[in-house]
Structure formats: structure tokens, C-alpha cells
Write a structure and sequence with these properties.
Oligomer: heterodimer
Bound molecules: adenosine-5'-diphosphate, magnesium ion
CATH class of chain B: Alpha Beta
Number of domains of chain B: 1
Structural class of chain B: alpha/beta
Largest interface: A-B, 19 and 23 residues
Largest sheet of chain B: 6 strands, mixed
Radius of gyration of chain A: 31 Å
Structural class of chain A: alpha+beta
Strand order of the largest sheet of chain A: 3-4-9-6-8-7
Strand content of chain B: 25-35%
Shape of chain A: elongated
């Protein structure tokens, strides 16, 4: 074994230039691939954490018919059991009880269909940073019945802080829900849907308005670690009575984002695949040359009594060494690059920037540092080297070494 | 006692198309300690015959017995192992592994045969000294002269103490001085270690040194001459 390795190592440097070129191409591919992947994973991280956090949450618990009907009849009773189940779960970073319902909002001069969002002010700020988006007046408080609305809605309804608006809708069990509420704050939200149509109130105000004492439309949950998604979802599905409750993941609540991530991921992997395919052919060419130019040498060794398998192992060792050197140097060099762009995010421009803003995200790209992904690059290069070596290495045992020694081939 | 015996051995290439009877019914035996030259013009079948008795090729007809064991019946893998354990080869060229020093080239075969470190060190030193290339032990083949390379090759062929050594035109690429030295050393080994050496050549000066001359023509033995000891 040790001998094979020493032997392989020396052979590798018989043609320094070729070996160096091959290794450089691997280094280059690994850097490009790690960086590209880091960028992609960074953007998914942002989506999966920041975007999801402020919209649907990773998971949401609701009445089993609520997602389809979106009416308060299908709201859920917020039981002590449910509350303690969620409160005691250490894998959650945010637990957001909420009451949301469509209503008409009128200021006397104009009327618009809106979504009333009854939220816990503190929690809502954690989720979406709403407090920081207030440009006039004050943010919601636990007390009182003030509302905060987006700038665009305020403009449409001609409302200022201190004015009041009338909301009219349907409460739980079909009662009429109507109230006159004071605008206490105006926010500027990058998601135009929210800026135009969302009215935030605290939970008590929403409960009073919609006759929802002890009830919620949903509890949105945000995980500390996104990787716990499936486990946590299963946990709630088995803990809760599914004839009453529906536990939804963001994937079914935000299919657009899911598809966006999936197709982006798919194309990203294809591009890296093509990159590695090209590199793989390079390795193949090098190994083929390494075998072909040593035909005579190998033939003499087989004549002396070396089994072809031993030569195969030597060439395989040479290829794997080349791959590993390339992959290790590549990773060593990509780490500072990735780290730099992790600390200094790349600004996003154009259409993509719009997409980010629509999801309430800052249009910048933090390149993710994912050891697992780097490990994959290493593994891919290793497998690639072995696959590229299969053909050339196989030809060794097919050598007609007697003819080669005689000089007939 | 015969170390090698060929019984009516034939080798015909391309039997289906244009048959070439490279070896055409050779029966001969070699005793331990022989120093024999196989001679004859180019194309007479020298290489083919050496390959047959060395287990590199299989006869199309006849038997090759080594220590009374018929090696033509072995599988390819068994033949490979058989060569490693029993036969020392020296070819015209490309004998040495370029990335290994002279020392390592000789030690390599012994390592494959799982000799102990101590045995290897002793034997390699002895052989390289005997072949007068001990001072070149750390050099790689491409820094050695053709004659030195062939001496290392002979040392390597001897390393595992094989039953016999087959050398196919070992001096073909050497000048006359190196040829003389190589033959002297081969002779010396033959006498001191009693190693059976069979080599082919078409060089008159080389054949003079042999104690037995087997002359081939058209794949047949035309003369088998023992010179006086
Ligand atoms: N693989 C082969 N296929 C066909 N003919 C061959 C092959 N090897 C050798 N020969 C022929 O066999 C004959 C004997 O060749 P060889 O044993 O190499 O002779 P020598 O070594 O005496 O020059 C020659 O005519 C040669 O052309
Ligand atoms: Mg020949």
C-alpha cells in the first residue's frame, strides 16, 4: 500500500506540466463551484429564514378547513394544551398567534378591501421588523385599539395619524363586525401588497371586532434551525388531533417561493454539473495519456510477473491523488473567497433586487459558509477522478503485453 | 536433471489467415547451471521460443515442462504468478521502472515476493556490487548508461533467486565494451550462483561466450552444440 502510494506519487511528477495543468483545472472548478453554491445557498438561507419568517412562518397551525375557506367560521380555539405544546417547544424561535380576516375599510371618502391582521405587537416586530418601518406616529401596543397602516393605504384613504377609519366585515359565526378605529401609526413596507392592503391591530382589538374570544385564525411558527422543519412538522402532526387541526409547512403556503428556489437550485446544480463534466474529461485525458505513454513499461512489469490489478491500483492512486490535491487546494483557496463575500455581501440589482424587496428582504447576497457543501465538492472531485480513470485503467488489463514488448504494437 | 524441457513445441501465429510457424516442433531440455545461447537470424523464432519457455506465451501444440510441471496448462493468472516466483527476465529495452532508483528497481520484485527487509537489503547490495553498479544505486535509470541499465536489469532478474534467467537479446542496444562487461558479469553469476542462464543473440562475439549454442532456423533447431568446459 505504502509502496503503491510512493510509486504513484513519483509517477505523478514525471510530467510536471501536465499534472499541474490538471490539478489547476480541478482547483479552478472547485473554487467556482464552491463559490456559486455558497451564493445559491446564501440566497436560499435568506429566503427560508428572513422571507418565510415575515410571511407565513415555517409552519402554521390552523383549523383543518381554514386554508381553503379563509373564513372565521374555520378559526381555531386556542386551547391551553395547544398553547403549552408550542410554548414548551425549544426548537421554535417565534410563536405568532394571529387573527386575520378580510374587511372593508372606509375613511368616508374612499373604501378599500383590506386584510385586518390581529397580531402580538412584540412578536410581529420580531417577525417582520414592522416597528422599524413606522414612518409616522407610533407602533402598536398591547393596550388600546389603535391601528397601523401602510403609506399607500393611508394615501388612498386620505388618512393621517390621529384620523379614524371604519372597518366593516363578518365576525365569527356570521355576526357583523364593525368598528371605528384610530390610526396611530403609518409604516412604509417594501412589500406593496402589505403597504396597500394590510391593517395591523393588536390581538385584543381583533378579538373584540370579530367576536373571537379565545380563538385565533392561526399560529405561525418560526424554527431556530430550518433543518428541523420535517421533524417539527411530524411532531405537531402526531401531537395534535388532525381531524381538528391542520399543520402546514411554508411549502404549501408559498408555492411560488418554493418553485423559485427549486428551479434556481436545479439550474445551479446543472451548471456545476457541466463544469465538473468538463473537468472530468480533462482528468480522463490526463489519465489516458498517463497509461498510454507507459504501455511499454507496464508491459515489462506484467511480463516480470506483476498482476495487471497492481498497475490498475497504481494508476488509480495517481488519479485520486491528483483529484485530492486539486480539491484540497481548491477548498483552501475558496474558503477565504467565500468568507470575504460572507462578510461583505454582494448587492443585488435589477429584477432580482425587486424580487428580494417583494419578499421584504434587503437586496444583498451573503455567500453562505456551508461545510457540508464544501465536503460535497471534495467528494464529487474524488468520485469524478475515479470515474474518469475507469476507462484508461481498464485498458491496462487488455494490453497485449507480449506484442508490446516485441515492439509489434 | 532438466530444469526446462520443451516437448515438440509449436507456436503458429494467425492460424486462420496467413499462418506463421514461428516455432515449429522444438524438443530440447536445459539442465541446471547451463549458460546457453539461442542464436539464428532475425525472424527465426528466438523470441517466440524464449517466450514459450518463460510462460509469456502459450504453445499451440506441445508441452513446456519446468521442474517436470507442465506450465502450458496454467491459467493466465497462474502464469503471471509463476513468472514472478520462478523466472528472471531481461529484455532488450524498457527493463527498468523510470521513477525508481537502481536500488529500488531491484528491491521492488523482492518486496512483491514479501522478502524481509533484511534479506532485501543484503541481497540487493550483493547483486548491485556483483554487477558493479553499487555506486549507482541511488540513480534513476535515465541517468545510467545502457550497459549499466542492463546490469541493473540482470541484478533485478536475479533478485528473487529464480530457477533460471531468460534474456532476449540483452546486448542488442549495447556497444562492444558494455557487451563484454555484461557477458563477463553474467558468466560470473552463472558460475558463482549456479544460475541457469539462457539468452538469445544474433551477435557472433556474444555467442562465442556461451557454453552451449542452439541454432534455430525457421522455427526449428538446426544445431545444438555443447562446447568443452
Ligand atoms: N504476434 C505475432 N503475430 C504474427 N507473427 C508473429 C508474431 N510474433 C512473431 N511473429 C513472427 O514469428 C516469426 C518469429 O519471430 P521471433 O520469434 O520474434 O523471431 P526472432 O526473435 O528470432 O527475431 C517471425 O516471422 C515473426 O514475424
Ligand atoms: Mg527477437
Amino acid at each position: 500500500m505504502k509502496q503503491t502510494l510512493i510509486f504513484a506519487w513519483r509517477n505523478l511528477w514525471r510530467n510536471k506540466r501536465r499534472t499541474l495543468i490538471t490539478i489547476s483545472s480541478i482547483v479552478f472548478a472547485v473554487i467556482i463551484a464552491s463559490f456559486m453554491r455558497g451564493m445559491q445557498l446564501g440566497s436560499y438561507d435568506k429566503m427560508l429564514n428572513d422571507a418565510i419568517k415575515s410571511t407565513t412562518g415555517h409552519l402554521s397551525i390552523m383549523d383543518k378547513d381554514f386554508w381553503e375557506s379563509k373564513t372565521l367560521i374555520n378559526s381555531l380555539e386556542y386551547t391551553v394544551e395547544l398553547d403549552s405544546l408550542i410554548a414548551s417547544d425549544p426548537s421554535l424561535s417565534i410563536r405568532a398567534p394571529q387573527i386575520s380576516s378580510g374587511c372593508l375599510a372606509s375613511s368616508g371618502r374612499n373604501t378599500r378591501g383590506v386584510l385586518i391582521m390581529g397580531v402580538d405587537p412584540e412578536v410581529e416586530d420580531q417577525r417582520s421588523g414592522l416597528k422599524g418601518k413606522i414612518v409616522e406616529g407610533a407602533y402598536l401596543s398591547e393596550e388600546g385599539s389603535g391601528v397601523v397602516i401602510g403609506g399607500m393605504l393611508a394615501k388612498y384613504l386620505h388618512l393621517k395619524v390621529g384620523d379614524s377609519l371604519v372597518v366593516l366585515g363578518q365576525g365569527y359565526m356570521g355576526m357583523t363586525a364593525a368598528a371605528e378605529l384610530e390610526v396611530t401609526g403609518i409604516f412604509d413596507h417594501p412589500m406593496s401588497m402589505i403597504d396597500k392592503r394590510f391593517i395591523y391591530v393588536n390581538l385584543n382589538t381583533a378579538r373584540d371586532l370579530f367576536f373571537m374570544e379565545g380563538r385565533l385564525t392561526s399560529v405561525d411558527l418560526v424554527l431556530k434551525d430550518y433543518n428541523d422543519l420535517d421533524v417539527t412538522m411530524d411532531k405537531y402532526i402526531s401531537a395534535l388531533d388532525t381531524t381538528v387541526y391542520d399543520v402546514r409547512s411554508w411549502k404549501s403556503m408559498n408555492k411560488v417561493l418554493l418553485q423559485q428556489i427549486e428551479s434556481d437550485n436545479f439550474f445551479g446544480i446543472i451548471i456545476i454539473g457541466i463544469l465538473y463534466l468538463v473537468i472530468g474529461f480533462g482528468i480522463f485525458g490526463t489519465v489516458l495519456m498517463m497509461v498510454m505513454e507507459r504501455k511499454r513499461e507496464f508491459s515489462v512489469m506484467m511480463a516480470l510477473g506483476l498482476r495487471p490489478g497492481r498497475l490498475v491500483r497504481i494508476v488509480l492512486a495517481e488519479t485520486i491523488m491528483m483529484g485530492m490535491i486539486g480539491a484540497l487546494i481548491g477548498l483552501a483557496l475558496s474558503f477565504p473567497v467565500i468568507y470575504y463575500f460572507h462578510l461583505n455581501p454582494i448587492p443585488i440589482t435589477g429584477e432580482n433586487a425587486e424580487f428580494y424587496r417583494e419578499f421584504n428582504l434587503e437586496p444583498i447576497l451573503e455567500v453562505a459558509i456551508k461545510p457540508v457543501s464544501l465536503f460535497w465538492q471534495f467528494l464529487i472531485v474524488l468520485i469524478l477522478s475515479i470515474v474518469a480513470a475507469i476507462g484508461p485503467v481498464n485498458s491496462i488489463s487488455k494490453f497485449n503485453f507480449v506484442s508490446i514488448i516485441r515492439g509489434r504494437e | 536433471m532438466a530444469v526446462i524441457e520443451s516437448i515438440d513445441v509449436h507456436k503458429t501465429y494467425n492460424p486462420e489467415t496467413i499462418p506463421v510457424r514461428a516455432v515449429d516442433g522444438i524438443s530440447v531440455s536445459f539442465d541446471a547451471g547451463e549458460f546457453t545461447a539461442i542464436v539464428g537470424p532475425s525472424g527465426c523464432g528466438k523470441t517466440t521460443f524464449l517466450n514459450l519457455i518463460g510462460g509469456l506465451e502459450k504453445p499451440t501444440q506441445g508441452k513446456v515442462l519446468i521442474d517436470e510441471k507442465d506450465i502450458s496448462k496454467l491459467s493466465i493468472r497462474e502464469m503471471t504468478d509463476y513468472r514472478l516466483h520462478n523466472i528472471g527476465f531481461v529484455f532488450q529495452a524498457y527493463n527498468l521502472i523510470p521513477v525508481m532508483s537502481a536500488y529500488e528497481n531491484v528491491a521492488f520484485i523482492m518486496q512483491l515476493l514479501k522478502f524481509t527487509k533484511k534479506d532485501i537489503a543484503e541481497r540487493v547490495e550483493y547483486l548491485l556490487r556483483t554487477m558493479s553498479v553499487w555506486d549507482k544505486r541511488d540513480e534513476r535509470p535515465n541517468t545510467l548508461s545502457g550497459g549499466q541499465q542492463q546490469r541493473v536489469a540482470v541484478a533485478r532478474a536475479l533478485a528473487s533467486k529464480p530457477k533460471f534467467i531468460l534474456a532476449d537479446e540483452p546486448t542488442a542496444n549495447l556497444d562492444s565494451k558494455s557487451t563484454g562487461t555484461l557477458l563477463d558479469l553474467m558468466h560470473h553469476i552463472n558460475e558463482t550462483e549456479n544460475t541457469t542462464i539462457i539468452f538469445s543473440t544474433h551477435d557472433d562475439r556474444v555467442m562465442e561466450r556461451a557454453r552451449r549454442l542452439i541454432q534455430l532456423d525457421d522455427g526449428k533447431i538446426v544445431k545444438d552444440e555443447h562446447k568443452g568446459a
